[in-house]
Structures are given as C-alpha cells and as structure tokens.
Specification:
Length: 160
C-alpha cells in the first residue's frame, strides 16, 4: 500500500508541475493572431511642415524678486534702408547699448539657437548671421555673443 500511495502522489505532483509549466510556456509564447493582407493601393504621403518657428515673449509680468511689474517698452522703431550706392560717407553712430540676456534653444524645432539681446532697452531675438537695427550677430554661446555694428565688433557677456 505504501508503494501505491507513492505512485499516486508522484503522478499528482507530475500533473501539477506539468500544468504550471504549460501556463508559463503559454505566457512566454502566446498565439499570434492571423493578419489578413489588405487589398487596395494605399500610399502614405506625409506632410512636411515648413513654417518657421516663431514665438513672442510677453515680459509684462510681475518680477518675483522686486514684487513690481516691469516697465513698458518703447514702440518698435522703423528701420531705415540705406542704399549702398550713396557716395557720401554716413556719419558713424555710437555703438548702441547692448545687453546679452540669454540663449533660447529650440533645437528640436529649427535646429538653430536663438539669442536674446537688448539693443538700447529693446529686446530682440537673433539667430547667427541675422542683423537687426544695424547690429549683426556673428557668433554666440551660452556665456557670450560677438556682435558687429557698422565696422566695429564687440563681445558682450551674459547679464542676468
């Protein structure tokens, strides 16, 4: 009788471990659904967004450190176009007051860095090679920018 019980228990243990092993195998290797082939001529034509990335900064908010709103900026100045065929030498203007405010970095969208520079108290956004109000951005980094105004070049460091 002892051997009969041993054989029955051996078969029961074998069945329990067999069921557990089968469930693990089914979780690892599930049945894949049948995929029918589509009939028809479908083409994918993705649209490429070629719009330039533009944004505006609204700086009319309360300063968290001073507790007061920022001063209103002057209206934009119309830029004059100077024709190169004028033989009269233009009077050289003094170098404008330039303050480098920081780097806006939308590389995910346009792939180029945008620099924020104050020219005579008016904030402007520059890309490398861009010219605004006679000031051209030659090169820049997160700490400083190199700017050209008329024939002179000036290095401006980051100010907070």
């Amino acid at each position: 009788m002892n051997t009969k019980k041993t054989y029955i228990l051996f078969i029961a243990v074998f069945l329990v471990w067999g069921i557990i092993g089968y469930k693990i195998y089914k979780k690892i290797h599930p049945k894949r659904p049948k995929i029918s082939k589509q009939t028809g001529n479908y083409k994918y034509n993705p649209t490429i967004n070629t719009d330039n990335f533009t944004f505006t900064l609204h700086t009319n908010y309360r300063d968290p450190f001073l507790g007061e709103k920022s001063k209103k900026r002057n209206k934009p100045v119309n830029r004059a176009v100077i024709k190169p065929n004028n033989k009269k030498k233009l009077k050289e203007k003094p170098f404008p007051k330039l303050i480098y405010r920081g780097l806006v970095n939308p590389k995910k969208v346009t792939g180029k860095s945008v620099f924020m520079i104050d020219i005579n108290g008016k904030s402007e956004l520059f890309k490398i090679g861009q010219e605004t109000s006679g000031v051209k951005l030659i090169k820049g980094s997160s700490r400083e920018v190199l700017l050209r105004f008329q024939d002179s070049i000036q290095k401006v460091k980051l100010k907070f």
